[in-house]
Amino acid sequence: MGGDDGGRAGTEPLLVAHLDLDAFFAQVEELAKPSIRGRPVVVAGRGGRGVITTANYPARRFGVHSAMPSWQGRALAPGAVWLAPRGTAYAQHSTAALAPVKATFSRVEQVAYDEVYVDLSSARAPEEPADLDPDGPGKELAVLGVDWAGDPYAAASALRQAVWDATGLTASVGVARHKLGAKLASESAKPAGASVLDVAAEELLLPTLGADALPGIGPVSARKLAGAGIKTVADIRAAGEPTVVGLLGQAHGTAMWDLAHGRDARRVEYDRERKSVGAERTLPADLRDLESLRSTHAAVFSEAHRRLLRSGAAARTVTVKVKYADFTAETRAASLASPTDEEAPLRAAAEHALAATSAPGTGVRLVGVAFSALDTVAQLLLALDEAPVAELVPAASVLQPAATPGFHPAYARDASTAADPRLDAVDDSAPLVTEQSAPGSDVEHPELGRGWLVGAGHGVASVRFESSTTPPARSVTVRLAEGRLRHCAPEPPHPPTVPAPWEA
Ligand SMILES: [Mg+2]
């Protein structure tokens, strides 16, 4: 069943790219903190249940890897730089890094904050620029005139370059005829590589891989296969389809049998993201008083919020829709500084939006609440930020935004307009640094400028006053009792000031 389709498969063009930012969280940290560049860097949740989210390449040499419990990693690499995740910074860098990709191609499937599949046959025409930033780098890329289908290596290189030009982050890009091949190609290119896996190379590579290289073979399936002596893709092929189906079940077994032979029909699911989620209610009788309008609005909000939580997304914008007795309609929206799924700020935004309508006016026949600007990425990252804080900080101070920078009103200012953060006056409404503040946090001092917290304890904080464009700094000790060291927003992504490693 497998061998006779080689010829047909060989005619499929190499049109799927997989782009993966290298050791993403750690790279963002190295960008922002010149003194740790090139050192082993581990980004990990705090507290007893903390888990490593990213280890950079130098740290991996000690055997540290993502998803490992922090205590275990610390035993392996005690001398590494250990930092708490800065969700807002990662979300901003993810958005900036992927913007040129999404601006150049219309079919882009984002599978993680640092990972996308791209259908290379969907390059936007130059006269039809993206709906993102019309002046962004994507427009230029689209008119580069690269023949994506004819020169897949040019496509991989151009994608890698676009991410670098926007952010100074390296990505690895692989191109192949389907998702499986593209992912294998990008993995083989890591870090900072561009690679093409043609059909012949794929056929050489696949049988040599462990069975768990196939998407869908997790630890459970791998154990089932290993129990029958099947450890590699070659073993799967040799076992025969009935054996694989017998071990893994009909649907899964057939799918894995096909993948083992380089047959991957999975599409680039570019339209999977949902744009909004919400609820609305048409009322049995028109509402004419403010109090019943408010209670109906509160109930519709609660239903919409339940749906938001179920969707696993975070929202930045809340829109309230009101239809009146005369069939006219009104919508008003309110936006937060960053996406959240928390009820209180979203409810406040919804109430703000409702107050901006003229309801109840002539009488209200429908009330709707919708959440948009959804961001599953921010959701994931903020969850990482928040989890350990509940363990470490007494309940009364949980509201201190030290670990949830996105939500503090002090951060609502548009970071992208601040040219040099050192020129800004310190925002004296931002929260003070305390001994509970997370290592790696962005901090600001009225005289010493902007930096990051190395650690705090015994009434002092150790801070390196440096940013992405300054020389590496040494640690400086600041007394917390002075009350002059405050948290601040992360430095926004910006184009690099040095050439890419592959340009040098
Ligand atoms: Mg990655």
From TrEMBL:
HAMAP family: DNApol_IV. The record marks F25 as: Substrate discrimination. Poorly processive, error-prone DNA polymerase involved in untargeted mutagenesis. Copies undamaged DNA at stalled replication forks, which arise in vivo from mismatched or misaligned primer ends. These misaligned primers can be extended by PolIV. Exhibits no 3'-5' exonuclease (proofreading) activity. May be involved in translesional synthesis, in conjunction with the beta clamp from PolIII. Belongs to the DNA polymerase type-Y family. The lineage of its organism: Bacteria, Bacillati, Actinomycetota, Actinomycetes, Motilibacterales. This is DNA polymerase IV. Binds 2 magnesium ions per subunit. It catalyses: DNA(n) + a 2'-deoxyribonucleoside 5'-triphosphate = DNA(n+1) + diphosphate. The active site is at E115. Its main location: cytoplasm. Residues 16-218 form the UmuC domain.
